[in-house]
Specification:
single chain
Length: 416
Amino acid sequence: MSSSTEKPENATDADKMSVVDDQPAASAAPEPKTAKTPETPDKPAVETAAPEPRPAQPNPVSPEPEPESSHRKSTALGLFLVFLLLLVFINLGAVYWLWQAQTDQASRIQGIGAAQGEARELTETVDQTRTGLTTLATDLAETTQFLNQKAARLERDISVAKESISVLSSANQQLRAKVEGGATAWRLDAVEQLLMIANERLLLANDARSAEKALELADARLQAIADPVWVELRRQLADEMASLRAVPEIDVTAISLKLQALSDRAAGLPLAGHMQRDQRRADRAPADEPAAPAVAPWHERLWAKTQEAVLSLVTIRQNTTPTAPLLPPDLHGLLVQNLRLQLEAARTALLLRDATQYDNALRTAADWVQRYLGTDDPSVQAAAATLAELRRVKISPTPPDISGSLRRLRQLRDQS
């Protein structure tokens, strides 16, 4: 409602009031006209209206008619009052609308003024910010130039410091070599000795476990030195220890116990059948033969020698199969002792990891068992099987080469 009848912003209060004052007069409606009868000199003018036809009623006595003019005047006055009251309300609404519009316009004007003030403040702030940014850019450029100069100086200082550090490091190494040279040299001597022991145990005694332990001790000595120069040597030691762990371990105790058991049972092993018969004959011969006379005649002595020669020839002809030379029956104890000596030699070679001597001793013992003992006996068969099993054991596997660490150590010591 206020937007349809707004006045320009520059209208004055007098113009607004004139609009308010002129509006009720313009909006007043003309009064209704009533028909009047022409006045006569005898009676006043009375409004005439066409009487309505009424039905004829039997009324012997007709009442006196009321005056119609007073009724019409009261009706017109009521209508006029209603219209006047309505006009007052309309004017009040228009006054309120104008007041509201003036209030809104004042509020808008006030808001526009505030916005213009804020715009001016914002413009001033933007100008100040622009000025501050310009100053900041200038300061930043100066700071950047200063920092670049300072960075250049720092780079020069760093290069000088690096040179100084290099000189100090060289001096420190020389000083440490002078101060700690004795302890380091002693540790390196110990490492070299341990490496030599490891190679000796592996090559001469075929003892991979002892060689591995010596390499571990050498690595611990190098770790105590705490010098990165020896890292490559420690890596080579680790490779050599891994190769030693791959060497199969020989159960020396079990093999030694088996050899000892064979040596203990050697005295109870029976001889071959023909040797047993010969020994029985030898045991019976002194009891069966008659006692020879102290001095026999020459012809009896000649007959005895001839008979002995003939009997010996007959015995040789009966043994037509090739056989190995037999021990005399009275040398059974010597056979047992020799067999035990061969088994003991095999044990000694086992401890020394001498594969050649170990195999020779076991081969000789097995040959004697096959030649001179009864192979039909279960105890002899068990002894022969044990000897064959022990001969299949490789007591000296191919050792790895662990001499590279020793050569590397000597090379590094010569360079330092």
